[in-house]
Amino acid sequence: MTGGTGRIFVVGLGPGNAAQRTPEADAALAQATDLIGYAPYVARVEAGPDVVRHASDNRVELDRARHAVELALAGRTVAVVSGGDAGVFGMASAVFEAIDHGPAAWRGVEVTVIPGLSAVLAAAARLGAPLGGDFCVISLSDNLKPREVVHRRLAAAAGAGLVVALYNPRSRARPDQLGAAFALLRTILPGTVPVAFARAIGRADERVILTDIAHADPEQVDMSTLVLIGCPLTHTITRANGEKWLYTSRSVAAPCA
Amino acid sequence: MTGGTGRIFVVGLGPGNAAQRTPEADAALAQATDLIGYAPYVARVEAGPDVVRHASDNRVELDRARHAVELALAGRTVAVVSGGDAGVFGMASAVFEAIDHGPAAWRGVEVTVIPGLSAVLAAAARLGAPLGGDFCVISLSDNLKPREVVHRRLAAAAGAGLVVALYNPRSRARPDQLGAAFALLRTILPGTVPVAFARAIGRADERVILTDIAHADPEQVDMSTLVLIGCPLTHTITRANGEKWLYTSRSVAAPCA
Asked: What residues does the Tetrapyrrole methylase domain cover (chains A, B) (predicted)?
């Protein structure tokens, strides 16, 4: 490694299906000498034998980001990879945070963020058109923010009639958090508001469960699930074959909720 | 045209750059016998001479959606196209709304929604990582919802510390609406909160303006602009060459705003 002309691509790999990854992402990955990221995402990238894979555990985003900057400043072309879109609860924010808090020289590194298809878009498409109105995207994880902030945001969003997409809905360390969120939302939304659990969309083990907020059961949700909570304008269409579509009306006649 | 085996693909074309369109979208478009959509989007699709292009004006989404269903039930393979993601203020919701309110037979039509890279994700990547925390996506258009609903949602989102992405920020019919939204947000957010105007990202006429909520000037915004309003945890990094990155901290130490 010699100094100078390295760079960082922060690449969103999409939901897990190569057909949902953009050509722009493929082109960036093809230039990489080094791949950095959470091990399952690094494993998803096809690369030649000369490419160095720096796979790491979850929860070490800042260490990973600093490592990427150091490699780039040493002249390597580094692809920092995330599932979905790297800007949505992925590695992009960690890379800039590392640079912002690092030595002044770190601001000289070239960083290009390549957007990817986020899980919320893939899940919504699989369900129909539940994001047809205004919506918000919230991480339920309390690793990085207090639970009261999460609850305040959920209440504000649901109270204002936004559809809510929840990332990181559940983990072994906080098995009760999703149930608490549903309990809060039941105090705000009519019980009939549709709720969808969209697991591993675009992958072989994809699974979709449709329910409503009155009956939503956290036990049916794992960390690979995108939880989508409708608003009072989210409708269900039942087809002759029993399949269902969800969509949210584009028109709001009067204040929703 | 003979009845029976038609279908609808609702396809998100991405932000306007072919490298940001997924292979899945290309594969769906390649099967289409008919293309339906707002004229500039239909014009973006390369297709053979046998493919019928039904380009229409803006604001006729439901007519377009009904036409797509009728063609599909007559045996055609119809691609209904939107810029960005068809599920985010695009045609997907209109297609399901048409089916929901149409004859019972319409529920038999096959509909597949192919997700696309939404403008908010492309704009965020171009800016750095402004969506690093929780965020919401709101259409400022009052064609389909009362202005008071828009304002209630903006106030709820900003008050709860969400980053706000605004679609359809301005049109000739409502030139003052964005200014009213900024005025509202100035009563809620510190004046230093970063604001970005990201116009036509991924296209030849791309343009980015960075400012803050105290100084945000609606005159710099047109209908092709994605307006991104940070939260108090959105930071600016200034590089030695004068370029700037925006990112939002992943960590929330205490209630934001």
From this structure: 8-215
Residue B162 in contact with partner chain A when CB distance is under 8 A? yes
Q: Which fold has domain B7-117?
A: Cobalt-precorrin-4 Transmethylase; domain 1 (3.40.1010)
Cα(A68)–Cα(B126) distance, integer angstroms: 19
Residues 99-138, chain B, touching A (beta carbon < 8 A): 99-100, 107-108, 111, 113-118, 121-122, 124-126, 128-138
Tell me how crowded residue B182 is: count the other CB atoms within 10 A of its CB: 21
pLDDT digits (tens, 9 = 90+) for A162-195: 999 999 998 888 788 999 999 999 999 999 999 9
The alpha-carbon gap from B247 to the nearest alpha carbon of chain A, in Å, equals 6
| B88 touching chain A per CB within 8 A | yes
Burial A140-169 (b: 16+ CB within 10 A, else e): bbbebbeeebbebbbbbbbbbbbbbbbbbb
CB interface of A with B, residues 220-239, below 8 Å = 235, 237-239
SS3 B244: strand
Can you give the three-state secondary structure of A135-149, one letter per residue? EEEEECCCCCCCHHH
- State the Cα–Cα distance between residues B42 and B20, nearest whole angstrom: 17
CATH number of the A120-248 domain: 3.30.950.10
pLDDT tens for the 257 residues of chain B, in order: 445 679 999 999 999 889 999 999 999 999 999 999 999 999 999 999 999 999 887 778 999 999 999 999 999 999 999 999 999 999 999 999 999 999 999 999 999 999 999 999 999 999 999 999 999 999 998 888 999 999 999 999 999 999 999 999 988 887 899 999 999 999 999 999 999 999 999 888 999 999 999 999 999 999 899 999 999 999 999 998 899 999 999 988 754 44
| Spans of all domains in chain B | 7-117, 120-248
